[in-house]
Task: structure prediction
Amino acid sequence: MFTGIVEERGVVVDLTVTDADAGSARLTVKGPKVTQDAGHGDSIAVSGVCLTVVDRSADTFTVDVMAETLKRSTIGVLNPGDEVNLERSVQPTTRLGGHIVQGHVDGTGVVTVRVAHPAYDEIRIAVGHELARYLAGKGAIAVDGISLTVIDVVDNDDGAEFGIGVIPETRSATTMGATKVGTRVNLEVDVVAKYVERLLAARDRESA
Result:
């Protein structure tokens, strides 16, 4: 489990396809802070995707990425030199500064608007119907692994657009500072919304 509070920006060292038939890959990332106490089998969120460490050096770690993860996230389009947001899994004593983030990306969205204001940047992201139903104003969402608050949600024929505000600290500490219109980002909706949907569906079936 993660909190969506990014610890550092890492740099992609290598992304290599390991099984062309299965569509799996191996990713190596440079991240001195998160690597310092990482061990084999530990979890690290890479731009919001929970991945398992299979190898490490002094300042890099390597993970295996399955086809499903490549399909649902932006991991598969990373190139050496690209920056990614990194966060180690939480410990029992960690403050939950963001919200509960599982690192299980639900899909991607596309940045449609970015407007700079004196105290923050306003960003709008378009999503399809499969994710739109989980969004709510003042709710939580993880964007590339960053815990953010949804300002508002505007439904449309394609799904919805939602707004977030990015403060200077988030802009400087994460990859959100370089995110431009047209950028595709990883999204994880609030897990509570998914459980509520599942429970309501089960209730409806039982009462039918």
